[in-house]
Amino acid sequence: MAGGELSGTVADVPVPWEFAEESGLAQLETRPQDPYSINLAYVQMDGRLYIYAGDTRTSWVQHIEQNPLVRIRVNNIIYPARAVRVNNDDEIVKFAAIWVSRSTFQRDPNGLEEIWLYRLQAR
Questions:
Q1: For 83, which of 65, 113, 115, 118 could close a Cys bridge (C-beta 3.0–4.6 Å)?
Q2: Domain positions in the chain
Q3: What is the pLDDT of residues 8-53, one digit of tens each?
Q4: CB of 98 closer than 8 Å to CB of 45
Q5: 44 Cβ contact partners less than 8 Å away, ≥ 6 residues apart
Q6: What is residue 111's three-state secondary structure?
Q7: In whole angstroms, how far apart are CA 104 and each of 21, 50, 99?
Q8: What class does CATH assign to 9-122?
């Protein structure tokens, strides 16, 4: 179930991203003019943070396509970020290896026709 504006301590996006876990759960807020937030999984790779919707153009994907400014809350810290869609095949393959290693139920992006994968970076 989606929520509204996230609350917590706001901090600058770390460069590089470095959390204790390679992947974990976070809350993503999109649509700054009318905040919409959801729980999702993230993956860290090479000091970057990624969020992934598979091949489904979810509500949060549609929001990012209209306005790439997001906020992500990890460990009760909120990071204002910009979501950049990943189209680089090498980056997708590397992400996929981490993503599918998390669980046999994770959808491998390598087998999908359209991929909604985003890298979060400082605004």
A1: 118
A2: 9-122
A3: 999 999 999 999 888 899 999 999 999 999 999 999 999 999 999 9
A4: yes
A5: 17, 18, 19, 21, 22, 23, 50
A6: helix
A7: 19, 19, 10
A8: mainly beta
CB neighbourhood size of 58 (10 A): 14
Residue whose pair of structure tokens reads 């976070």 in the numeric block = 26
Q: Are 55 and 10 in contact (CB under 8 A)?
A: no
- Are the beta carbons of 76 and 9 closer than 8 angstroms? yes
d(CA 57, CA 60): 8
pLDDT on residue 106: 67
Tokens 């090498």 found at: 90
pLDDT, one tens digit per residue, over 109-123 is 777 778 999 999 999
* Inter-CA distances, 83 with 32, 60, 101, 118, 123, Å: 13, 11, 24, 6, 9
Q: Token match 């700054």: residue?
A: 32
Q: Provide the terminal-to-terminal Cα distance of the chain, rounded to the nearest Å.
A: 27
- pTM for the complete prediction? 0.91
